[in-house]
Design brief:
- The structure is a homodimer of 405-residue chains.
- Chain A folds into two domains: 271 residues, 3-Layer(aba) Sandwich (Rossmann fold); 79 residues, no CATH class.
- Helix content of chain A is 40%, strand content 16%.
- Chain A is built from 16 helices and 13 strands.
- Chain A has a seven-stranded mixed sheet, sandwiched between helices.
- In chain A, helix 2 links the parallel strand 2 and strand 3.
- Strand 12 of chain A pairs antiparallel with strand 6 of chain B.
Chain lengths: 405, 405
């Protein structure tokens, strides 16, 4: 955590990955984040992975360092409390992150009557507001038909990473700061909508894939081959798998030298009339001719020998490993680094949790903070932000409009 | 494009996806972005997809709306010009986005001698600064061993989406605005580093996967099944594939009703002693018992009939389609919407290009702007930002220190 956004206060009513991770990113750069949940927890309170006792590792990962307020949002008095928290005064408050529908009491039009300069950042599924999740957006966009080898026939292969959720969360955090900057300069608040499907579609447009499909048709399955340059998985003599990539000319020449393939590659270039170092695309066009050379060369070496050669020639590569192997044994992915802090979490487990993925070099990184217990900060937030008296907070508890951890 | 960050000026020396997309996001919310490239183009100038003539659709997708300056960066005079552009004065200037190594003339220590409040946002591969790309980070993190079905044995299945690049670009844009906000308030500039590998590792931590692997071991391959709730691809009577998801209780009950599976599901619940609506995780635990019911029910219906039922019950689903089918025929992914603008691009092709994925509702969306030709703005930027005279700019051209389109 870095004290970069100190003073900024964000209120979150959200669930799952995209909107909660948006607020998490803001929190991990120093903003205060008040997360409002229904009493008993929202839709994501039990989302897997869970402990054997059913506590969600997902929930406690996505809500680290937030203040938790539990309110009965089905009752008018509870809803008004939530609205009061969202629209509380202060030049660095009035920022609301949500994935609730635009209709209803959390709609921007209603909220901004109470605070006209409110910034609402709303993550949507489809751009028309209909629900979508990462898996349904990805299915609609065609990536599962590009993933895996030709042996999959017309069966889709789903990604296991909720990539669009994660990307949307980061992009929404960016949009939040942009809108807040605009408000600081103009006084103008507004609603910002960030549809998962638009983030996905725009991303494919930004990387040229929409221009490609419009002008050249659908990209077929290329298995594990990197599109448009040299790259694939190869098996070593001791049966490990390595991902090897050469996009730039220097990466290519380093790789060819490391494997002592210069004569064989030169012969192939002469036969084909191409120059692989100068044109990365030719390495992709002729990959079926190139791959066997690399299969033999890599397959003749055990991993340790290959590593030595690759490191000597600055080859762009990595061994494939499981996540367990990665976090246990790969110094580049160590959990001991300042990025991680070992914390006691609400689940009862103690494990390393990540802070902000960026490092701000003029500020000291502060340790990550665990997630709250549900409702842990109900009383404190109602007293601090809404100036409610202990007697009033007691009444709200008695009426079961709020709950504490 | 939205005029939200108007006035902010960003200088970019970068290639590939992460850092250039960071600057693109800033540009699409209204910042001025000056991209400095070597004369003849950088390492990504020919990256695929390309037109039949070899023009990069990727490059022109990632550099939309930027001003292009071409400088010979191998010569001291060219390097000084780049440094002068990066460190040019102005309260809303002095923001630098790069993926160049920390050593050398683009290092923050050297640059900040010329402008002490410079904000440098540097995308790294591994956290120690060693090069990495999406494919090598992903291989090291284990996701290819979780992707696809058990039939893949111990062969990895690579993702085709450069998810970590895209996520890092969005997160770096967020980090840029955070650092710029901090500078506005304190006067303090700084270097911000954003390693691809830390973005990836932190993301897996935020979603509970690191806690999971540390406490429960590696997650096996689950094929196309959604982890921890109900979800998978199914085949319709007319041989279309659909992705069907039920995470919340309401999604589950809607799905069961839509397929008239209530009696069969109730019988299974009684036999197993579980309540699927109340506990999404049980739907995953017992997926092999549940899937055949859904295979039969969905397999008995053609897509049109299924669609009707799913829409009537607000089921969370999507048909699988190719990207070509998506952009040609799916209104939720239409390229006609305000998100896209049909433009003439430097490749000579005319096609719809996306603007900002977020919509700012108090501001009118302005059309997207095409990428520049390489060096298109060299003269204008040198005159405007560095106040160089036409004679001086002419000398730089004569000495081949700069080039124009």
């Amino acid at each position: 955590m870095f004290p970069i956004l100190s003073g900024l206060r964000v209120v979150e009513c959200a669930s799952f990955i995209a909107a909660p991770s948006c607020a998490l990113h803001l929190r991990q750069l120093g903003a205060e984040v008040i997360r409002i949940d229904p009493v008993g927890g929202g839709m994501d309170f039990g989302r897997w992975p869970v402990t054997p006792q059913g506590d969600s590792l997902y929930w406690e990962g996505l809500n680290k360092g937030k203040r938790s307020v539990a309110i009965d949002l089905s009752r008018p008095e509870g809803r008004q409390l939530a609205v009061d928290l969202i629209t509380a005064p202060g030049p660095d408050a009035g920022v609301f992150v949500t994935n609730h529908p635009q209709k209803g009491f959390l709609g921007h039009a209603a909220l901004s009557r109470q605070r006209p300069d409110l910034v609402t950042v709303r993550v949507l599924g489809w751009r028309d507001g209909a629900p979508a999740v990462d898996y349904t957006v990805n299915a609609a966009l065609g990536l599962p038909y590009m993933t895996g080898g030709a042996g999959n026939g017309d069966d889709p292969v789903n990604h296991v990473l909720p990539a669009w959720d994660l990307m949307t969360g980061a992009y929404a955090a960016f949009a939040t700061l942009a809108a807040e900057r605009h408000r600081q300069r103009t006084g103008q608040g507004q609603e910002v909508t960030v549809p998962l499907s638009d983030v996905a579609l725009a991303s494919l447009g930004h990387t040229g894939q929409i221009a490609e499909v419009l002008s050249q048709g659908d990209r077929p399955r290329y298995g594990n081959a990197l599109f448009g340059a040299f790259g694939r998985n190869f098996r070593t003599a001791d049966d490990r798998q390595v991902m090897v990539v050469a996009i730039t000319g220097r990466q290519w020449s380093g790789l060819v030298q490391a494997l002592e393939l210069a004569p064989a590659v030169a012969a192939l270039e002469a036969a084909l009339g191409v120059a692989f170092e100068a044109d990365e695309g030719q390495r992709f066009v002729h990959r079926e001719a190139l791959f066997p050379l690399f299969e033999r060369a890599i397959g003749a070496l055990p991993l340790a020998a290959l590593r030595q050669r690759f490191e000597a020639h600055a080859v762009l590569w990595s061994v494939y490993q499981t996540l367990g192997q990665a976090v246990a044994g790969d110094p580049r992915l160590s959990l001991d680094e300042p990025l991680f802090s070992t914390l006691q979490h609400p689940s009862g487990l103690r494990y390393p949790a990540p802070g902000a993925a960026a490092s701000f070099h003029a500020s000291a990184r502060q340790p990550a903070v665990p997630a709250p217990r549900l409702g842990e900060h109900t009383d404190a937030v109602l007293a601090e932000v809404l100036s409610l008296s202990p007697a009033r907070i007691g009444q709200l508890h008695d009426a079961k409009i709020v709950a504490s951890a």
